[in-house]
Every structure is written in C-alpha cells, then in structure tokens.
Amino acid sequence: MDKKAKDRPSVAETxxxxxxRHPSVRDCVSKDLVNFSSLSRLxxxxxxxxxxxxxxxxxxxxxxxLSKTDFEGDIMSVFEESxxxxxxxxxxxxxxxxxxxxxxxxxxxxxxxxxxxxxxxxQSANAITVISEDKFLPMxxxxxxxxxVVTVKQNLAEITVKSxxxxxxxxxxxxxxxxxxxxxxxxxxxxxxxxxxxxxxVNREDxxxxxxxxxxxxxxxxxxxxxx
Length: 228
Known about the structure:
Elements lengths: L2 H5 L3 H10 L2 H8 L5 H12 L4 H15 L4 H9 L3 E14 L2 H16 L4 E5 L3 E7 L3 H8 L4 E14 L10 H11 L4 E7 L2 E7 L3 H12 L10
C-alpha cells in the first residue's frame, strides 16, 4: 500500500465525519428517520467515495451507535427546568482591544454592578464588547473614549435563559438554542453563555419572535422582566 492510500481516511471515518458535520442529518440518523440508501449516495457525491455498500454499512453502524445516546433528551430536560427573562433598552458598545479601554472601564463596571444592573464585558483578539442598559450608554462611551469606540447599537433586547447548574455539563445545550433561533431567521447580535445563564441580544423588532421561540423550549416557565 502506498503512503497516499495509507494516509487516506477510511470509508467509515469519512461517513462519520460527513454525518457529524451536518447536524440536521446527524439528528435524523440518530432517530432512524433517513433513507440510508439516499444518504449513502449523497455522501458519495459530496465526498468522492465510490463504494456504496461500504458507505451504507458505515451509515447504519453509526446510526446504531447514535441511537444509544439521547443528547436531545438531556437538553430538553434541562430547559424544562429553565425560565426566561426579558429586558429591553439594551445597548452594545464595541471598542478597540487596547489596555487603556479596560482600565478606563473599571470605575464604570463597579458603578453598574453595584446598581445591580445588566452588564457584560467581553474581550476578543480584535475588540472589547460591552453590553449594558441604554441609560448607561453615555457613561460607557465617555469612559471608553471617542477614539476607541468602533460601533454603538442601542434600543436592543436581551433574553436570558436561566437554567439549572447541570446545563454546564449538558452537551449541545447552547448550540440547541442558537440553532432554534437561527432556523427561524432571528439575527443574534450577541450570544453569551455565563455559568447557568444563556444570554441573547437581538434587535427590538425580533424581540417577541425570539422570546416565543425560546418559550417553546422552556414550556410555561417564563418570567418576563422589562428593563427600565
């Protein structure tokens, strides 16, 4: 066997990777809701594998393994014990990722947190994002400094899913909520997971649709809270 053939992934590995990279296919495979012959031909078409019988066998074997796990059941069990909180008049300020921005925000963070108000500060390689209430926008923008502000968005809505602690060890919980919203055309301006809270920032016009979608996940355990 030449080196190229030896390094080439097996049919079974190629099949598993294809299924894992397509969450909707994976979900249907785990529930035995697919025509495996059609799936095999699709995998062959998109991966270049030429052995249909091998792909078909690999698909069925992987389906048997997936059927023994119930990730969705675990996820829904968590959200059945969750509740929703809704806040309006939320703003997002994106600033340059510079140390002086974090330094200047220190006093603002202390003041807002002492007021028991909404605030999240996130840092990435390129930016610092501050989420707070509209009423604090002038103070936040002034602390950051005009030269360091990149973008400002206000009059937004924040929806928080407050869950039991086991959400931290429940695989796919965050992804499940994001997919529920994105599949319904909801544009997420920010999505943050913080301990047992999962926080989504959306445009005001998407607020009620997003809230209704998330409400379906947590049934009747809903606690709206309008920001002031």
